[in-house]
Design goal:
CATH class: Alpha Beta
Shape: globular
Helix content: 25-40%
Strand content: 5-15%
Number of helices: 8
Structural class: alpha/beta
CATH architecture: Alpha-Beta Barrel
């Protein structure tokens, strides 16, 4: 559970970050994708979202956006939201504040967004406090672990069904590690969300 749905102690490391969007009446969730865009994965995800008339938020690696500008523009054109995931998928543990922020700024030359999610879901507290002055920091309430070699498509669906709740920010990945599993799991998850009466919105 620590991975799939981070506990309060971990969330408190980044107290003003967005982990879950609490709501009074609406049964709404927020689907996000990390690490794209790439031609091997992102088109399938976009086609699937379009089939169900669902919008999502894509936290993009800047270098991928640079290499595949047509995918960046397709995500925008189809009404999805874009977030920054650094230019080189930087680990906060390995870089200084200055280098980390410079890499994020480079990504934003392509992405033009005020949303940010740190790669690997972690950054140093000093990086967090510097970054939050420039971006809305978006974390997650449910991570599907679709990137793991120990997880298959039915596991992804089980994780989603077990941990999703109103207001959840749910993280998938448009990556090479995830895509073959998502070809099966993503439509099943979207159909379950619809059956359960969830609305799916972008993060504003």
């Amino acid at each position: 559970m620590f991975i799939e749905q981070p506990p309060v102690l971990f969330r408190n490391l980044y107290p003003r970050a967005l982990w879950r969007i609490r709501q009074e009446a609406e049964k709404t969730i927020y689907i996000t994708f990390d690490d794209g865009p790439i031609p091997e994965a992102t088109p399938f995800i976009l086609d699937t979202l379009k089939r169900y008339n669902i919008k999502a938020t894509f936290f993009m690696v800047g270098d991928n956006a640079r290499r595949y500008p047509e995918l960046l523009e397709r995500v925008r054109a189809e009404g999805h939201r874009i977030g920054n995931h650094t230019f080189h998928h930087f680990s906060g543990a390995r870089h200084t504040i200055r280098k980390y922020m410079a890499d994020t700024a480079l990504a934003n030359e392509y992405l033009r967004t005020d949303l940010f999610r740190p790669p690997h879901g972690w950054m140093r507290p000093t990086q967090y406090y510097a970054m939050r002055n420039k971006y809305k920091i978006v974390m997650w309430d449910v991570v599907t672990r679709d990137y793991s070699k120990h997880i298959d498509a039915p596991d992804i669906v089980r994780i989603v069904k077990k941990y999703t709740r109103p207001g959840s920010i749910i993280t998938f990945h448009d990556s090479l590690k995830s895509i073959e599993k998502l070809r099966i799991a993503l439509p099943e998850c979207l159909e379950w969300f619809i059956t359960e009466g969830y609305q799916m919105k972008i993060i504003e």
